[in-house]
Amino acid sequence: MAGQYRLQPSTNLLHLPLELLLKISEYLSFADLWYLATCSRYCKAMAHQIIWYRYHIDLSKPQLNAFNHIVHAALAYVSRHGYNPITDSIDHTILQSVSNRLAVEIYDRSPLKNWEPCLDFFLDKSLGIILDHMLLDPLLDTIPKHTAITGKRMNTVSILEHERIPNNSDSDTNIAQSHRHLLMAEFYPTRMGRLITSFLTTFYPTMTALFETEPTTEIHHRLLLNHINRHLDNLATRYHSHYNRRLMLATSPRPSRASTMTALQQHSQFLRLNFRILIRLIGTLVQADLLSANDLNIITRQRIQFFFLNDRHDEDEKRQAKRVKLNRQQKPQTGQQTTLYESLKKNATYYCWQMWLEEIEFQMEIFLDLTRVVLLLERSSHSRTDLTVVSSMLDKTISALISTRSNESPIVLPPSTSNAATSTNANNTTPTTV
Predict the structure, then answer these.
(1) Cα-Cα-Cα-Cα dihedral of 102, 107, 110, 113, to 10°?
(2) How far apart are CA 122 and CA 207, in angstroms?
(3) Which of 243, 256, 263, 407 holds its CA 20 to 30 A away from the CA of 270?
(4) Left if phi > 0, otherwise alpha if psi is -120 to 50, otherwise beta: which for 11?
(5) Given phi > 0 = left and psi -120 to 50 = alpha, else beta, which region is 289?
């Protein structure tokens, strides 16, 4: 009788293996895991372990990193309560209260004299963690599509009607204005990007109210640019190394497994998603006047245009020629790095062409986002903004789609099975004279 009433071992969330917990946590955000850690002591240990494995953030010893712990707590609170659940709009009272608390924490830790180094240190940590939270859960943050919202609804039919007018002297101007209206839509950031931008817009004047305006503005602007460049450089390094691996597998003589190629393609889409989220954040910061048009121009020239892969072989050749010119005794190391265009010339496989078309499509999406940012900035400030950088990159992308380089041999795709059969039948038949 006693064996019938024996208690069964409890099976709950705490007894699941770590691999299954990590799989479940893919559907949870950082804020969900943070508030899971507030439930009990055991949930705290489990949530901190998941956060360490997923985000590489150590929260096990808050007494050693007290300020970092405060910033993570502030962002978890903003992520959970920043949007009004009824209207789905940003609750600015929540953002103001969190900004006040974080600004006071920085102010209390700074001395009365020579406070600039301390402000630089704590603001660097704060902005670094804030921008890191932008890319913690990219799969849970959807990228909205732009829709043209203008007074007159300009569609493709109206543009074509303008093109059919032969004798109208203002037809070119009308067509340009029509395309301009299609591009000048509202710039839609991601949900997390809108929240982070609103929080930074609230946090910046709070800091200038506690500290002197001029050094605080310079420090805030410099550190914000540094962390944006840090994320762009990190994504570019990961993206290039990942594509080198994909090209090595695609051009290798060994047959690659389908699962490996699928995993690499999914990781490539993940990196592109991170980059698009970051570009949307940069555009939103420009719209909020936290970054200037000159900052956008510098970021585009120095970071964004070197993120892509199509023209990397030209830069490698120039760099290699310069190295040989400086040291003629050193032999040039050729053939160690495979570029995307070279792989298309040597091994014109379907997979390489798919990679190339994915890259071109990705470039078009980024350049159109940048163009929309600049046009909206021009409309809001009523000043002429320089579009040469974005337009030149867009021109290179389009020319890469419709033509090949004049000084190189064209790329010929290998004939498929149906084409080979057709050519065989054509050779066996006798041509008739007309």
Answers:
(1) 160
(2) 12
(3) 256
(4) beta
(5) left
The closest alpha carbon to 199, from 107, 295, 74, belongs to 74
Mapped onto helix, strand or coil, the DSSP state of residue 431 is: coil
Segment 240-264, tens digit of pLDDT: 998 888 877 776 666 656 777 788 8
Residue positions counted in the chain: 434
Q: Which two tokens stand for residue 364?
A: 């078009």
Burial class from Cβ neighbours inside 10 Å (0-12, 13-18, 19+) for residue 402 reads: exposed
Rounded to whole angstroms, how far apart are CA atoms 237 and 432? Answer: 59
Using CB atoms within 10 Å of the CB of residue 228, give its burial: 0 to 12 exposed, 13 to 18 middle, 19+ buried: buried
- Phi, psi values for residue 90, rounded to 5°: -70, 130
Q: Which residues pair with 83 in a beta bridge?
A: 90
**E-state strands within 37-168:** none
Q: Which of 394, 391, 403 is nearest to 365 (CA)?
A: 394
% residues pLDDT > 90 (the chain) = 42
Yes or no: say if 57 and 137 are a contact pair by the CB < 8 Å rule. Answer: no
Q: Which residue has the higher pLDDT, 341 or 222?
A: 222
377-403 average pLDDT score: 63
The span from the CA of 261 to the CA of 248, in Å, is: 11
Taking CA atoms, 249 is separated from 154, 257, 348, in Å, by 46, 9, 14
Structural contact between residues 196 and 84, judged by C-beta atoms closer than 8 angstroms: no
The answer to whether the CB of 196 falls within 8 A of the CB of 391 is no
Distance CA 149, CA 132 (A): 32
| Distances from the Cα of 31 to the Cα of 25, 74, 144, 285, 344, angstroms | 11, 10, 22, 23, 44
DSSP bridge partners of 90:
83
Alpha-carbon distances of 32 from 9, 26, 38, 80, 228, rounded to whole Å:
27, 11, 10, 8, 26
pTM attached to this predicted model: 0.75
Per-residue pLDDT band for 166 (boundaries 50, 70, 90) equals: very low
What pLDDT is attached to residue 371? Answer: 84
